[in-house]
Request: fold
Amino acid sequence: MLSAAEVARIRKDFPILSTEVNGYPLAYLDSGATSQKPECVIDAEQDFYTSRNSAVHRGAHTLAVEATDVFEGGRAATAAFVGAGEREIVWTKNATEALNVVAYGFGNASLDAARGAGDPEAARFRLGPGDSIVTTEMEHHANLIPWQELARRTGAEFRYLPLADDGTLDLSDLEGIVDSTTRILAFTHASNVLGTVNPVERLVARAREVGAYVVLDACQSVPHMPLDLHGLDVDFAAFSGHKMLAPSGIGVLYGKAELLDALPPVLTGGSMITTVDMDRAAFLPAPQRFEAGTQPVAQVAGMAAAVGYLSETGMDQVAAHEAELAAYLYEGVAALPGMRILGPGPGEPRIATVAFDVAGVHAHDVGQYLDSKGVAIRVGHHCAQPLHRRYGVTASTRASAYLYTTQEDCDRFLAALSEVRGFFGVA
Reply:
């Protein structure tokens, strides 16, 4: 794992961590929402704009060639980082867009097939009455609403795997919910609220038994643990750059190459076609078929720098550091009176995210008090309203750590949290 000296060295790479908030040094415990950026990522974006700024795949001049090299080099680096092929990495603006590209691709295939039109290869994605789509009760809205909408548009049945009381998935009726009608099983690798790491192998195995496609929300796993998408055998996956040290405005859709080549595109226009006439157009294979229009090349440059930084640090090291922080945060919150933690306890697989409800104090008030002490955390429903409803709360407070988080950050958070109920007169 990372030593205290190594974490101290890492922190020096992040300019914002030297910021003061309300007269206190910043203790940033909101990396689950967005991560901070090291100087190498900031520099990579600036270097692109100052030295290589040009459109990609559209020119023969030197700057255009260099920009394209940056763009495709970032794709290669990202593919290697998550155990994928270069043609299996599609740039999107975030994970939400990536998941919608898949959902709307299935929808377009279903519409075309119903009309007897479209590419015959896309017919494999057709959905209709008698089919089912399955997700889980713990999903971020980005991996819930697109499937609700796809079910509504196609007439497929929408189902979900429920949550157990301990914050894990209740898989007691997995075979009954994911059955022979199931065409899509979409689930998160790690919960952004509960910290739960789901049993991907078991869920994929069940999907394979019934011939369903697997869509993985990897937003909270790619930044925090080693990942091999080929090894996991998922069909599609999505993650966001801004949660893994990269800039905002860049996301990734992973898909098995043969599936991406068959999936109908959602955004159409320039740069994703082979030929166009006034009656029809023919589309390029993946990944370009999903990358219409001007691309976020500077953000890709930043993404490549972020991937390089994490690779050099070592994802095994990052995961081990966060495992220690996860236990420290969980035990620290649990030791305080009036705290109800949402999610699995020690011994269960989890990321360094701890969400909790403070008896008698609204989450927003908790957040404001902690901010007054220079501690940044997340409050609200974290884009997971059904999850919160399942546990009888409308909002929670969430602390989430990353490779640059120190035990001192956690101690300052716990010290401020210990004062909250007394400050609001409910202790």
Remarks:
- Residues 46-311 form a domain with the Aspartate Aminotransferase; domain 2 fold (CATH 3.40.640.10).
- The chain has two domains: 4-30+315-423, 46-311.
- Residues 7 and 406 are 7 Å apart (CA to CA).
- The mean pLDDT is 96.
